[in-house]
Structures are given as structure tokens and as C-alpha cells.
Amino acid sequence: MNSISSILLLLLTVFFTSSIEARVHHLKWDVKYEYKSPDCFSKLSITINGLSPGPTITATRGDTVVVEVFNGLLTENTAIHWHGIRQLGTPWSDGTEGVTQCPIQPGETFVYRFVVDREGTYMYHAHYGMQRSAGLHGMIRVLVPEGTREPFTYDGERTLVINDWWHKSTFEQATGLASSKFTWIGEPQSLLINGRGRYNCSMAGPMDVCNTTSPECSPASFVLVPGKTYRLRIASVASLSAFNLELEGHNLTIVEADGHYVRPVVVKNLNVYSGETYSVIIKADQDPSRNYWVGLNVVSRKPGTQTGTAILNYYPNHPLARPPTAPPAGPMWNDVEYRFNQSRSIVSHPEYVEPPPRTSDRLIILLNTQNKIDGYTKWAVNNVSFTLPLTPYLVAIKQGLRHVFSQKPAPETYDLKTYDIHNVSHNPNATTSNSIYRMDFGSTVDVVLQNANTLNPNNSETHPWHLHGHDFWVMGYGMGKFDPEVDPKSYNLVDPIQKNTVAVHPYGWTALRFVANNPGVWAFHCHVEAHFFMGMGVVFEEGVEKLGKLPTSIMGCGESKHR
Ligand SMILES: *[C@@H]1O[C@H](CO)[C@@H](O)[C@H](O)[C@H]1NC(C)=O
Ligand SMILES: *[C@@H]1O[C@H](CO)[C@@H](O)[C@H](O)[C@H]1NC(C)=O
Ligand SMILES: *[C@@H]1O[C@H](CO)[C@@H](O)[C@H](O)[C@H]1NC(C)=O
Ligand SMILES: *[C@@H]1O[C@H](CO)[C@@H](O)[C@H](O)[C@H]1NC(C)=O
Ligand SMILES: *[C@@H]1O[C@H](CO)[C@@H](O)[C@H](O)[C@H]1NC(C)=O
Ligand SMILES: *[C@@H]1O[C@H](CO)[C@@H](O)[C@H](O)[C@H]1NC(C)=O
Ligand SMILES: *[C@@H]1O[C@H](CO)[C@@H](O)[C@H](O)[C@H]1NC(C)=O
Ligand SMILES: *[C@@H]1O[C@H](CO)[C@@H](O)[C@H](O)[C@H]1NC(C)=O
Ligand SMILES: [Cu+2]
User: Fold this and answer.
1) pLDDT at residue 404 above 70?
2) Which of 280, 297, 304, 401 is the most exposed place for a label (fewest CB within 10 A)?
3) CA-closest residue to ligand 6 atom 8
4) What is the pLDDT of residues 37-67, one digit of tens each?
5) pLDDT in tens, 78-90
6) Closest ligand (CA of 382)
7) Mean pLDDT taken over the chain
8) Looking at ligand 1, which atom is closest to the CA of residue 306?
9) What kind and span of H or E run contains 366?
10) Which atom of ligand 7 is nearest to the CA of 380?
11) pLDDT tens-place string over residues 435-476
12) Is the pLDDT of residue 196 over 60?
């Protein structure tokens, strides 16, 4: 290339990267099974272009992302959900099999196209069966346009995708959960940070391949330059576990949650529930002559898994030099109050408050229970265990196919007066249904998630609920039974954080508010993969009549016709 054309190219590059015009990112993904040893134990994992976690998507606010997904799984369908992206105007790209699209069959290619309309940290993952926990997941970073101020500054950025990992296939897991002789998936074999963890190979069976010197399971290492400040973007794609993340000797300042700026909170360690994302700021201000641990611990369930570790490396120490200390053990796993308090401390950054509507048009109370149906163990919401229809709701509603799912309205509440949330239910029998909640377009909806005892005495679990297509305001958290006469009086109407995923703590309640103004059909479900698989979810519909013609690519299954 001569010098004139290189100058031209340079000018063009400068022009395009500095112009505020939105860009289109074209990605081509090949999804397939491969043997991987993320924790030294060799196992089939789902990869994207050879990677698990898949490639990080980086785009700038306002850009369009186009992902061409080729399903190379040979014997399995798939679908990919863009978690936290609201899909304004593109509800058919939400990637929720059975809700917004038919599954992508083996050998088929499906094209997702959507705008990343707001900056922040998000994730993507499979939304078909239990494939997320087989490794089909990754991070999405949406940057602010150049020159845009954020309410914090930093010198560098690092990403952490955190996950729990099983050696059994998701087929074995799903079959155990769906059998009348119920088999629980159990605690994970290891915890992974950026797809790297460690299993104790001396516990592996004689037929297993487990190699502690495999380079695939050398720990993740985060290189820090002494004196500098870093933004860590954190996404939990966990299948089951609630996590606590601690960086030995370093406080974390929480500055972003699910794509919204947080009034900065300094914590020693951060609780992260499956489906949540955070940004925290850390300062590399400790003794630079050594490295430090990143410790990932299970909370809320009695841990049965070794602490997941990575290394915080102070340049120029060796990136893998082992810290001289023991990895952080985190807070007590059953200290519910600690986690409850931290949840409550997260509110909107004062300069970025978008106040919620002061009142709502509808209150839906969703009681979360573990149940029995014909001898099978399920999770249910107001006594209804959710099942997906064969025809995706979006197509069914748009095409007026009323017979393909239950038209009976899903229940608005439970028996508030008599149901004892603190004890095992006297009658755990529930029913299955694919009924949904239909919202008036533009209305304000309050949803209260009410937790309860499971089928085991003295046990209530943490459920991280994720809403597709919207952010909701977190109006309040409480312990015990929500009282609709009293508790709304203590809602935060001033500066509630907006999120897409929120925890309901053991025996507690969490109140949300959102505006039903995004035409489409949207899943709202527990992000614990096994819980959603066992029926812990609901579906909201609003404004489908406002949508134009649906793309035929989402059709072809059940009674959805290519027309
Ligand atoms: C690995 O497992 C073996 C056998 O159970 C045990 O003796 C050993 O202490 C374990 N090692 C670690 C590092 O936990
Ligand atoms: C373990 O992995 C290392 C590094 O890849 C390799 O050199 C070694 O042969 C492997 N050991 C076994 C038993 O496969
Ligand atoms: C972390 O924060 C606590 C409480 O604010 C403070 O006492 C401690 O000195 C801080 N530690 C570091 C390493 O900054
Ligand atoms: C939680 O917050 C309450 C009220 O501020 C406080 O009294 C309590 O000590 C905190 N508990 C824990 C475990 O942090
Ligand atoms: C629950 O349903 C089972 C049948 O699946 C039935 O045998 C049992 O009596 C029911 N329990 C109650 C309390 O109604
Ligand atoms: C649970 O039930 C037992 C007996 O049925 C009762 O004694 C106890 O008070 C109940 N617990 C709560 C918290 O209501
Ligand atoms: C669920 O339905 C059963 C009757 O089938 C009833 O006894 C029970 O109280 C209901 N539970 C809830 C939470 O409404
Ligand atoms: C219930 O479990 C909690 C810990 O989760 C424990 O502190 C408490 O003692 C238990 N209560 C009973 C009655 O077993
Ligand atoms: Cu759950």
C-alpha cells in the first residue's frame, strides 16, 4: 500500500470510529460439542467457535448486533437468549425457545438481530433445555459512545464470567429431575472463573480423564499494574449456585448492576446470583511484591464444592505465582441477613435516577413453592407448574391460534390468609399449565415474589428471578409474608435500582414494578436452570397486536406455519 492510501485509510478509520453513527457487528457462531477440561476433568461441553465461555460481544450503545448461529450439535436443538437486552422492537430475537421462537434444529442457521440500546454488562446463554449449564454462555459488554462520561473512572477493565460445573451430562441431569424416582443434580463438582477451575483428580473414577497439568485448567490470572484502578465486569451464568466473590485484600466498589449505575457501595465481598451482572471498581493498592486470590464461594446452599479460585497478579510478578495465603472463605453460607442487607444497599446512582411510576395498575403476587404432581417433584408459582407449549406464544398470539395454549388466566395471587410459608405445605399437590398473564399495554405492573418452605422441613432456597424484555424497579425486599396492606408503604419510590434479575431470599419477598410497554411475549422465571426446568416460571404478554409481520424464521414447529 502506498503512503497516500494508508493516510486515506487512517483518516477513514478515524472518521468511522469517532463518528457517533451506530455500527453493525456481524458475528458468525458455530455451536457444537467438544471435549473440554475446564476443571482438569475431561467432559463434553457446548462451545461457540471452539470456546466456552463463548466469545465476549463488545459493542457501543446504539449499535446493532447480528449473530448468525449455526447449530452444529448434531442431535440437539438450541436457541440463544441475549440476557438483559430488552429487544425493543425485535421480540422475535429474544431467543427463548417456546416463547419467542421455534428451536434451531441441528444443521440449521438462525440469525439474531438486535440493537444494544443501553450501555452496561450483560450476558448471553442457551435457552433450550439445560444447555446453559453445558457451557453455552458468555458476556456482552456495551460501551458508552466515546466522550460520554460515566459516574466513575478507571485505567483498565477485566471481565469475569462465573459458573458452577457438573461432570454429568445435562441429559442425565434433566432425566433425573423429570423422573418419578426423582434424582437431584447435587452440588457442582467445581466452580469456574472464565471457564477455569480445579477438580481434585484423585476423586475421579478409573475411566475418567482428569489431568491436573492440562493447560485448560490452569487458573485465570488478572494482571494489575500497581497503583492503577480497574473495572471488573462480572456475570454469573451459574446453573444453580448463589455466589460470593471476594478479592483477597481488596475492597470492591459496586458501580453497576444489570446495566444500571449504582450509588457506589464499598463491600468486602459481593453476592452474585445467577443471571446477575455487576461492575465493581478495585484499586491495585496492596503490597505489589505478591499475588492475591480471587475466591468464589457458594452461599445460600450448604457448600459441597471447593472454593473456586483465580489469581490477582501484580505486574511484574509471575502471573501464576501462588499467593502465600489460603483463598478467602467468604461469609457464612447461611447468613441470610448478610445477603439481604447487601441486596437492599444497592440503589440507583443519584445522577441516573429514573423514578418509577408512583402507583401501579395491577398487583400480581407469585408464591414460589416446591410441589408434587402425580408423584413427580416440581416447582410451582401459585400452585401452577409451568410447561412450554409446542407452538411459541409469540406466533400463537399473533396468528390467533387460541387452542395451542391454555386461555385460562394464570392466578394473580395465592391463599394469602391461610398458607403457611414457614412450614412444609399440608397439601403439596399442584397442577401443570402453560397459561400466561396478559398485560394492558402501557400499564404499570407490580409483581411480588413470595418465598416459602420447600418440601424439606426448615428449608427455603434463594431464587434469582429474571424478566425478559424489561428492566424492573426493585421496590423493596422483606422477610416473612408480604402484606399488601402494609408493605407497599415502605417501597422505595425515590431511587430504586432497575434490574433484570433479582433474588428472592429464603422465607422473604421481593417487590418489583415495571411498565408493560414492550410489545411481545416475555418469560419471567427463576434463573436456576433446574428450577425453571421443573416449572418455576411464568409468561407475560403485552401489545402483540402492535407488532408487524413476524419473521418466518421463528416458525415451523407445533402449529406455527411459515406464512
Ligand atoms: C483430593 O482427594 C483425596 C482423596 O479423597 C484427598 O486425600 C486429598 O486431600 C484431596 N486433595 C485436595 C487438595 O483436596
Ligand atoms: C496431561 O497434560 C499434559 C499437558 O497437556 C500432557 O503433557 C500429559 O501427557 C497429560 N497426561 C496424561 C496422563 O494424559
Ligand atoms: C476496606 O473497607 C473497610 C471498611 O470501609 C476498611 O476498613 C478497610 O481499610 C478497607 N480495606 C482496604 C484494603 O482498602
Ligand atoms: C443488617 O442490617 C441491619 C439493619 O441495618 C443490622 O442491624 C444488621 O446487623 C445487619 N446484619 C448483617 C448480618 O449485616
Ligand atoms: C396428592 O395427589 C396424589 C396423587 O398424585 C394423591 O394420591 C394424594 O392423595 C394427594 N394428596 C392430597 C393431600 O390430596
Ligand atoms: C410449623 O408447623 C408446626 C406444626 O404443624 C407448628 O408448631 C409451628 O408453629 C409452625 N411453624 C411456623 C413458623 O408457623
Ligand atoms: C394447591 O392446591 C391444593 C389442592 O389441590 C391446596 O390444598 C393447596 O393449598 C394449594 N396450595 C397453594 C399454595 O395454593
Ligand atoms: C433451621 O435452619 C437454620 C439454618 O439454616 C438453623 O439455624 C436453625 O437452627 C434450624 N432450625 C431448626 C428448628 O432446625
Ligand atoms: Cu429457583
Assistant:
1) yes
2) 304
3) 423
4) 999 999 999 999 999 999 999 999 999 999 9
5) 999 999 999 999 9
6) 7
7) 96
8) 14
9) strand 362-373
10) 13
11) 999 999 999 999 999 999 999 999 999 999 999 999 999 999
12) yes
Distance from the CA of 465 to the center of ligand 9, in angstroms?
A: 7
Q: Cα separation of 494 and 492, whole Å?
A: 6
- The Å distance, Cα 552 to ligand 2 centre, comes to 49
Q: Give the global pTM.
A: 0.94
Taking the C-alpha atoms of residue 295 and residue 269, their distance in angstroms, rounded to an integer, is 9
- Per-residue pLDDT band for 210 (boundaries 50, 70, 90) equals very high
Q: Which residues line ligand 1 (CB under 6 A)?
A: 200, 202-203
In this structure, which amino acid lies at residue 22?
A
The answer to whether the beta carbons of residues 536 and 432 sit under 8 Å apart is no
| Residue 19 predicted with pLDDT over 60 | no
* One-letter amino acid of 558: G
Q: What is the mean pLDDT of residues 349-368?
A: 98
Q: What is the number of the ligand 3 atom nearest to the C-alpha of 250?
A: 13
Helix (H, G, I), strand (E, B) or coil at 477: strand
The upper half-sphere exposure of residue 528, i.e. CA atoms within 13 Å in the direction of its Cβ, equals 23
In angstroms, rounded to a whole number, what is the distance separating the alpha carbons of residues 269 and 152?
Answer: 19
Q: What per-residue confidence (pLDDT) applies to 20?
A: 57
- Partner residues linked to 112 by β-bridges: 67
Q: Determine the Cα–Cα distance for residues 91 and 360; give it in Å rounded to an integer.
A: 24
Number of CB atoms found within 10 A of residue 35's CB? 11
Tell me: pLDDT of 479 over 60: yes
Give the contacts of 35 (CB within 8 A, at least 6 positions apart).
42, 43, 44, 45
Could you tell me if 73 and 29 are in contact, meaning their C-beta atoms sit under 8 angstroms apart?
Answer: no
- How do strand 229-236 and strand 156-165 relate by DSSP bridges? parallel
Distance CA 425, CA 209 (A): 44
Cβ proximity of 382 and 366 under 8 Å: yes
For residue 202, the CA-to-ligand 3 centroid distance in Å is: 39
Three-state SS for 160?
strand
Q: Answer yes or no: are the C-beta atoms of 97 and 533 closer than 8 Å.
A: no
Please identify, by atom number, the ligand 1 atom nearest to the C-alpha of residue 201. Answer: 1
**Nearest-angstrom CA–CA distance, 430 and 437:** 18
How many angstroms does the Cα of residue 249 sit away from the middle of ligand 3? 9
Any idea which ligand is nearest the CA of 335?
A: 4
CB 496 within 8 A of CB 358: no
- With a 6 Å cutoff on the Cβ, whether 334 touches ligand 8 is yes
183 — pLDDT class (breaks 50, 70, 90):
very high
Please give the Cα distance from 493 to 473 (Å, whole number). Answer: 9
For ligand 2, atom 2, the nearest C-alpha belongs to 214
Ordered by where they begin, the domains of the chain are 354-562 (2.60.40.420)
Q: How many angstroms separate the CA atoms of 294 and 246, rounded?
A: 6
Residue 169 pLDDT greater than 50, yes or no: yes
Residue 341 Cα, ligand 4 centroid: separation in angstroms?
6
**Non-local CB neighbours of 511 within 8 Å, separated by 6+ positions:** 446, 447, 448, 449, 474, 475, 476, 477, 478, 482, 487, 488, 491
Q: Percentage of the chain with pLDDT > 90?
A: 95
Per-residue pLDDT tens for 492-503? 999 999 999 999
Whether residue 10 is predicted with pLDDT greater than 70 in this model: the reply is no
What's residue 21's pLDDT?
72
